[in-house]
Specification:
Layout lengths: L5 E7 L2 E8 L2 E4 L4 H6 L5 E3 L4 E3 L3 H16 L5 H15 L10
Antiparallel strand pairs: 1-2, 2-3, 4-5
Helix pairs in contact: 2-3
């Protein structure tokens, strides 16, 4: 099975990213160590561990997806995921969903 890939520069949140698109997948350039160290701890989903950077909307959406994967793999607690989701939703501009009543 072969796939066609397209490469383009994408601007998100005032920053440019070199991206490769293929089979409905977006692969963003990795955040360099130097750039990651410049991000304040408050921009991470888990600030003390400096995990799940959320400097823009694309990183916030990615953090939510990765957190879901880590909960399913048993490597992240539900409460940690909730914190990551809440912070990501702020970056994404989503409002809190009302709590379900039983």
């Amino acid at each position: 099975m072969s796939s066609t890939l397209a490469r383009m520069i994408v601007s998100l949140g005032g920053k440019c990213y070199d991206c490769i698109f293929g089979l409905q997948t977006l692969i963003m350039a990795k955040l360099t160590t130097k750039a990651r160290k410049k991000i304040p701890a408050s921009k991470f989903g888990l600030p003390k561990q400096r995990k799940y950077p959320m400097e823009n909307k694309s990183h916030a959406a990615n953090a939510k997806a990765r957190a879901t994967q880590m909960v399913k793999a048993g490597k992240l607690s539900s409460s940690q995921k909730a914190k990551i989701d809440a912070k990501a939703n702020k970056v994404l501009g989503k409002k809190k969903s009302p709590k379900k009543r039983k």
